[in-house]
Amino acid sequence: MKTATLPPLRVEPELREAAEAALREGESLSNLMEQSLRDEVNRRRNQAEFIARGLAAREEARRTGVYYTADEVHAELRDMLTQAEARAVRKAKV
């Protein structure tokens, strides 16, 4: 696969120094910048998907007239957590 370059990034000297200070052993500034860009792209993609699911859920609730209170949702989430914890305990015993 062919690679592409990104435009140069101009930053204040303090930001560059902070970025260089945050580098891990063997990591270059370019590696940090590329990973940061990947992380931000993924975060924005996940955020857009989350919003789309929320809007779809809102439309489904309007269409069906079925709504749930926060207490109902929290109770269901607690039940899911309890079940997951029980499965984890069973797996740990095996």
Short summary of the structure?
By secondary structure, the protein is mainly alpha-helical. The chain is built from 3 helices and no strands. The protein has one domain.
Tell me about this structure.
The chain has helices spanning 13-21, 29-64, 70-93. It has one domain (13-93). The mean pLDDT is 96. The protein starts with 12 loop residues before the first helix and ends with a helix. By secondary structure, it is an all-alpha fold. The longest helix is centred in the middle third of the chain and has 36 residues, at 29-64.
List its salient traits.
94 residues; mainly alpha; 3 helices
CA radius of gyration is 23 Å
Tell me the major beta sheet: none
Percent range for β-strand residues: under 5%
pLDDT < 50 stretches: none
Give the count of helical stretches: 3
Number of strands: 0
Query: Quick one: overall form?
Result: extended
Rounded mean pLDDT score: 96
Structural class: mainly alpha
- Note the gap between the termini: 45 Å
Sequence of secondary-structure elements: HHH
What count of structural domains? 1
